[in-house]
Amino acid sequence: MKVVAAVLLVALAGLSAQQDPDDQARIQKIKKYREECIAETQVDPVLIDRADNGDFTDDPKLKCFSKCFYQKAGFVAENGDLLLDVIKAKIPKETDREKALGIIDKCKDLKGADSCETVYLVHKCYFERSYLDKKEQN
């Protein structure tokens, strides 16, 4: 799932003060999905902020937030399966496509006890692998 999250985070992080309309629309969608999924899952937003910084809490609401968010973004199916064609098509142009696809490939087959946990595990895997890649480059 982090495959998707990393793609979204890279998209947000890569934005400058002078954003084009597509970037503005993408940011607004991300904010909308976040707020909708917080309302739907009743997750504590602090847990989301922590996960965005690499501190993944083993919390059922956070896991279902991950699924909700990525489902709204069109990256996962109801059963938690990644929609790889959609993910590949939505990788931001400023992202190293081959690296992102390599990480996705390493994380895509993770399975949890249910669809919420599956999406959460993939999301966490992608985040951790992206972080390790950055750390190795420095």
Question: What does this 3D model show about the protein?
Answer:
The structure is a single chain. With 138 residues, the protein is mostly helical. Helix content is 68%, strand content 0%. It contains 7 helices and no strands. The chain has helices at 2-13, 21-41, 45-52, 60-72, 84-89, 97-107, 115-137. It is globular, with a radius of gyration of 14 Å. It starts with a helix and ends with a helix. The relative contact order is 0.21. Mean pLDDT is 84; it is low at 6-18.
Average pLDDT, all residues: 84
The rounded distance between the terminal residues' Cα atoms is 25 Å
Helix percent reads: 55-70%
The overall strand count is 0
The sequence of SSEs as H and E is: HHHHHHH
Question: What secondary-structure arrangement, pairings included, does this model have?
Answer:
Elements: H1 2-13, H2 21-41, H3 45-52, H4 60-72, H5 84-89, H6 97-107, H7 115-137
Helix pairs in contact: 1-6, 1-7, 2-4, 4-7, 6-7
